[in-house]
TrEMBL record:
Protein name: Probable peptidoglycan glycosyltransferase FtsW
Pfam family, one: FTSW_RODA_SPOVE
Record carries keyword Glycosyltransferase: yes
Keyword Transferase part of the UniProt annotation: yes
Reaction catalysis annotation: [GlcNAc-(1->4)-Mur2Ac(oyl-L-Ala-gamma-D-Glu-L-Lys-D-Ala-D-Ala)](n)-di-trans,octa-cis-undecaprenyl diphosphate + beta-D-GlcNAc-(1->4)-Mur2Ac(oyl-L-Ala-gamma-D-Glu-L-Lys-D-Ala-D-Ala)-di-trans,octa-cis-undecaprenyl diphosphate = [GlcNAc-(1->4)-Mur2Ac(oyl-L-Ala-gamma-D-Glu-L-Lys-D-Ala-D-Ala)](n+1)-di-trans,octa-cis-undecaprenyl diphosphate + di-trans,octa-cis-undecaprenyl diphosphate + H(+)
Keywords tagged on the record: Cell shape, Glycosyltransferase, Membrane, Peptidoglycan synthesis, Transferase, Transmembrane, Transmembrane helix
Family recorded in the similarity comment: Belongs to the SEDS family. FtsW subfamily.
Taxonomic superkingdom: Bacteria
InterPro entries the UniProt entry points to: FtsW/RodA
Membrane-spanning ranges: 20-44, 56-73, 79-100, 150-175, 187-207, 270-291, 303-324, 336-358
Species of the source: Candidatus Megaera venefica
EC nos: 2.4.99.28
EC class of the enzyme, as a word: transferase
Major subcellular site: membrane
Amino acid sequence: MILTNLIKQWWRTIDQQAVIAYGILIAFSFMLVTTTSSAVAGKIGLVDNYFSSRQILHLFVGAIFMVAFSSLDKKWIKRIAILGFLFSLTMLILVKFYGYEVKGATRWIRIAGFSYQPSEFLKPFFAVVTGWILSLKYQEGFPSFQVCILLYALVAVLILIQPDVGMLILITAVFASQLFIAGFPIIWIMVAFMGGFFGIVSAYFLLPHVTSRINNFLDPVSNENYQISKSILAFEEGGLYGRGPGEGSVKQHLPDSHTDFIFAVAGEEFGAIICIMIIGVFAFIVLRSLIRINNEQDKFIQLASIGLITQFGLQAVINMGVTLNLLPTKGMTLPFISYGGSSTLAIGIAVGMLLGLTKHKTSLVKYKNSDV
């Protein structure tokens, strides 16, 4: 009875339409990973349902995280985000010494038999922590900008060591959006973007895999641009209505069809109409969240939420842009749809915190009004 009342109160206070939209994305993930997994698993000697069964577990745990974090009020979200950020930062340091290499980058570490990518979890916690620190600028004398810059610089160095330029670009964009909303002088935001541009140029000349990806993007007919050419062909063959579930061939050719290029699978098997629906769901979530914080007076909620919204929306844009050859290739998943343990769980945490920050003022769990 108590649990039923708690669930009812949670449902009344939460953004119900956004929760339904997230549920639609989860349904798409189950459908697309299922149609893709057998082909990918067969090529590397695994059982047909290896990826689909693991993704079901990832989505289930991610949904639990989403509900759990959305049940908290802003003070507990802030506290957990600080602890999560410190833990993720520590793990990011350990990756340098104990991580293992995949495709030329050391971003993963094994814990208790599971692979873990600390930078995925760092993203949402960093957005909330910087949102909190930037909100303190309204307290006279607190050097919020300087503190945030130091944190950002530390995170940037640790991510570049891996290296993961795409992740750094995403985190930089999130941080810049928060600076803009916080009302910092536009000159500092321009400096941040110039620094980002300089970083990309430096990465182009210093990191061979970045050089290759940008060159392939600028020369789409290159023989090395195999994945992109297959991705574009998948959309062409899918047409308006698609070839039907399981009938596509792109998953037989792309090693990352269940992760980075799952949108191409959707285009070939379900057609342009379903792809437009997926884009529409992402757009709805972003716009809906922006509307929820439009009149928010609490600076912490406003700044943390804008960081989480930017992260969610921009990650989706990057993934789909790469698949359509609108952006250089970057190993970034499509939120809640692509296969991936760390990615799915981190997105569950991110949207859970976003739902918790944007819900109605009557909290599911009552806490004292003390702050961190």
